[in-house]
């Protein structure tokens, strides 16, 4: 058993150099893209556009943190966008009904955790396929959001300034959603690299059977990761609610694809065992910059989905090819 554990550790640590190369490559691409956009799109380097772009991709970035952990685990979570919407709607309805803003937030986050716990339990206890399970939760959570709102946006009315500042405030000129994103990235990246508990996610994703034989409670790790993914999705929903002041059941539509795209572009493998939080952030930033360029160039919004799909497909092809070479 110790030998199996050693092999898993050796494999994960050997990939550190690969992570660094992948991440530096993305940084270089982003740097070149920024230079080109600055030259050909005069409005790109304005403070307003940079701030709007960063705030816009912050929610996808927060969700991508959880998605990266799920992919490293060897799973997938298609319910993140819907859980984001459910959290957004529940908190919004409670606030509009006169509930305390922060109590409403806690209830909405708790519901998000429950959703993640249900997904994790179905996967671990009944051995359901993660794709089907999270696809089902995607429909269920989004359906509940639509039922609660009857498909219409819910205005919050007058709420506390402290909650308003969560999504609309700034610290030293940096928007709060961007600060929250970077804090979460720093914390979870540190935990993934240094915490024994979070390192188990890599071990399970690399070789589930060997991880089990080495004494790791595989089901507990899986449940933990899916709950974290739902929790982060719920947080994204709350920040979005604070930012716009309206609860909308359509919030987070397509967020799962953007999160997967960002994580895979950043080096996460669909086969599990590989990926970093910083890499996912860089992937989200790259996709966000491309979409921002299309907007500034007055390209139809429909092209954004097309480009995101092409980028995701390219990243998956590269991932499959790289995995095949390592085999």
TrEMBL record:
Molecular function as annotated in GO: transmembrane transporter activity
Main subcellular localisation: membrane
GO cellular component, one term: plasma membrane
Bilayer-crossing regions: 21-41, 53-73, 101-124, 131-149, 169-191, 223-245, 277-295, 301-322
Keyword field: Cell membrane, Membrane, Transmembrane, Transmembrane helix
One Pfam assignment: BPD_transp_2
Keyword tRNA-binding part of the UniProt annotation: no
The protein, known as: Inner-membrane translocator
Bilayer topology: Multi-pass membrane protein
């Amino acid at each position: 058993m110790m030998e199996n554990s050693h092999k898993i550790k050796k494999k994960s640590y050997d990939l550190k150099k690969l992570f660094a190369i992948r991440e530096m490559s993305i940084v270089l691409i982003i740097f070149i893209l920024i230079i080109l956009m600055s030259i050909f799109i005069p409005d790109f380097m304005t403070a307003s556009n940079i701030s709007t772009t960063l705030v816009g991709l912050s929610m996808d970035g927060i969700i991508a943190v959880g998605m990266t952990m799920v992919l490293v685990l060897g799973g997938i979570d298609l319910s993140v966008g819907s859980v984001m919407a459910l959290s957004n709607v529940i908190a919004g309805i409670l606030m509009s009904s006169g509930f305390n803003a922060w109590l409403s937030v806690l209830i909405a986050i708790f519901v998000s955790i429950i959703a993640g716990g249900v997904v994790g339990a179905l996967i671990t206890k009944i051995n359901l396929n993660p794709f089907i399970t999270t696809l089902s939760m995607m429909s269920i959570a989004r359906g509940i959001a639509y039922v609660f709102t009857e498909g219409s946006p819910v205005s919050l009315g007058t709420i506390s300034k402290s909650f308003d500042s969560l999504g609309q405030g700034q610290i030293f000129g940096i928007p709060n959603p961007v600060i929250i994103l970077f804090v979460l990235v720093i914390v979870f990246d540190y935990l993934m690299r240094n915490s024994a508990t979070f390192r188990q996610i890599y071990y399970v994703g690399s070789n589930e059977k060997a991880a089990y034989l080495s004494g790791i409670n595989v089901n507990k790790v899986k449940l933990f990761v899916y709950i974290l993914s739902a929790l982060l999705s719920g947080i994204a929903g709350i920040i979005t609610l604070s930012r716009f002041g309206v609860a909308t059941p359509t919030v987070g539509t397509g967020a799962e694809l953007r999160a997967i795209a960002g994580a895979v572009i950043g080096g996460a493998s669909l086969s599990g065992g590989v990926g970093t939080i910083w890499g996912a952030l860089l992937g989200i930033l790259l996709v966000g910059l491309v979409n921002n360029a299309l907007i500034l160039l007055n390209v139809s919004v429909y092209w954004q989905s097309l480009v995101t799909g092409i980028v995701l497909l390219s990243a998956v092809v590269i991932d499959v090819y790289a995995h095949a070479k390592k085999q």
